[in-house]
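Hi,

I'm pasting everything inline rather than attaching a file, because the server keeps stripping attachments. The sequence lines come first, and each chain or strand is labelled.
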Amino acid sequence: MAKNKKVTSYDVAREAGVSQSAVSRVFRPGLSVSQKTRDKVMTAANRMGYRPNAIARMLITKQSGMVAVIVSSRANVNYPEVLSQVSKQLAAQNKRVLLFTLDDPDGVDELFEQIWTFQVDGVIALAAHFESHRLAQFEEHDIPVVLYNRNVPDSMANTVCCNHELGIKQLITELEKNNPKKYLVLSGPKDSDVANERREIAISLLKQFDVEDVSILYGDYSYQSGRDCLAKWLQKNPAPDAIICSNDTMAIGVIDEARENHNIHIPNDISVVGFDGITSSAWLSYQITTIKQPVEQLVKAAVAMLLERIETPDLPPEARVLTGVLIKGNSVKRP
Amino acid sequence: MAKNKKVTSYDVAREAGVSQSAVSRVFRPGLSVSQKTRDKVMTAANRMGYRPNAIARMLITKQSGMVAVIVSSRANVNYPEVLSQVSKQLAAQNKRVLLFTLDDPDGVDELFEQIWTFQVDGVIALAAHFESHRLAQFEEHDIPVVLYNRNVPDSMANTVCCNHELGIKQLITELEKNNPKKYLVLSGPKDSDVANERREIAISLLKQFDVEDVSILYGDYSYQSGRDCLAKWLQKNPAPDAIICSNDTMAIGVIDEARENHNIHIPNDISVVGFDGITSSAWLSYQITTIKQPVEQLVKAAVAMLLERIETPDLPPEARVLTGVLIKGNSVKRP
DNA sequence: TTAATATTTGCATTCGAAGTCATTATTACG
DNA sequence: CGTAATAATGACTTCGAATGCAAATATTAA
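And the predicted assembly:
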């Protein structure tokens, strides 16, 4: 029926013998239209294949119905799951995801330009680091922002985050059952907020547990860096008793390297823990003891928080911290 | 500077002492504006923090600058990489990604409604199955579509796909070096086009290789289904000599199950091959022989094809088939 | 210097739906 | 049955940038 020609509300109005306003009202929920008019309009609209033009609606209502989701390549952790959850949750609230990937720090300016011009209703940032002046820019433009999996102390930001402190404490408690002497902490990259936080928490908790001998290594969250860090360490040092990895992927690298190239048995020779609870952490070859992030709840919280700020822009900043789940795998020695 | 108040082209025009048209022309590339006017406008614009409103521009130009990317949950394979590539490639062409997730087949109607109302410039579908009347709908609405990783025979669709036939032939050639007697083909789900294609190609190629003894199992592409299928098979049958898995994830499940629960050694007892070349297929514990999909090139091709259709809507349908790379891992016995 | 041409510029209109406001139809009730 | 109150309707304006067109200005040629 509608071939090549876009049908507008005027076309439908003419066809239905009513005014354009009437058509508009029929397609806006909760407006008073008589049943008779509604029927006339709906039949005409269906016959002609009319769909309201979202762009025109955005312009007049100043609500794009879109949420910018910013993903940095470092977000790989639970990326597919998080992103698809975000998309679903937002769809349920009648919002769409406008996706931006941010790899290059130089791209931030360009990214922000895009966000302003697209007049998004809000922003969810996954694992992207923004300096505080960047956050201030959002404020200036009256665009609510929620930082996912981020814990920015002293900040004005809305954040949703898994409880790192509690999680890492549970992991260390597991490890301490064997009274390990020598600890290795395999941190993520120094320029990652999450990595720094996890590392510092681990260090300070180990102090609380009266652990003396702790060394810090720096990887980049990747499998290969897990392998490389362990290999390098073993070149000059004896094997540690326990390794705390800042994420599961590096833990998997550590385990593979230990097994294949150094004939070290996990967990008997070294206990390893990870963080995140990614799918492959549960695979039989690894079975990592780790903290599983409650992705669905985290996303729900983030979306709910964002929608609240869109509704009521002047709510004070808030940080929601959810508890992860300890997965007792097979990578920590049984005492 | 610009606090709370949106700056429009009229504001800038007044400030710069020119007309609104002039402002518009300055921000549209390739239009003739004198250097003097351009400077006046740019200073005013910068001072006031003006950014053109993309929504208004969309309305008048009838180009949203957005491409709908439809992802089904089954697309998990290389999801993060593909999606981030798509986003990057499109960004380079000044287009944004409007993300839609499609899990529930009942959601298709709703999804299509959304796509029409948002007036996207084009659509890229990742691993989502559409019946041909759906594709026809896109045609009616003049929205170009490219199907990623899909091979629809006899269809009017634009597709980009990795050469399954060639890839699987290479894999079988590897396996045949050991003259295996008994083959297992572990297929993906029956309602997945890609799974069906890979399975049928494997079966027909095995015939060409004069292989007699082939059994087909059906998984759902997941790790767990790889494990379950093998376990179930071994309950009633002896171990096969070779297993062709329709993707790497199931191959990993097969390997884990064989090793851990049946004391079967890979590759000495059973040779296993996968498909896709996902990151974890290269992990030391698995080292799967597989075909690595040329993701970057596939995405490049898909984006290029889509842009061509947007530019020139009447181009005939096209299928681009790229060749994957054989990764010789350690999951096939050395003869 | 003037005519002829090319380049800039601004006015007015457009895109398509939504909302304002005044007007008309409908209902309720004394 | 008349009047007040309420519901439904349409004419008109708005959102913000882009563009066809004609007028104004600048540039070049003669």
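Chain B touches chain A through 54 residues (CB under 8 Å).

If the labels don't parse on your end, tell me and I'll reformat.
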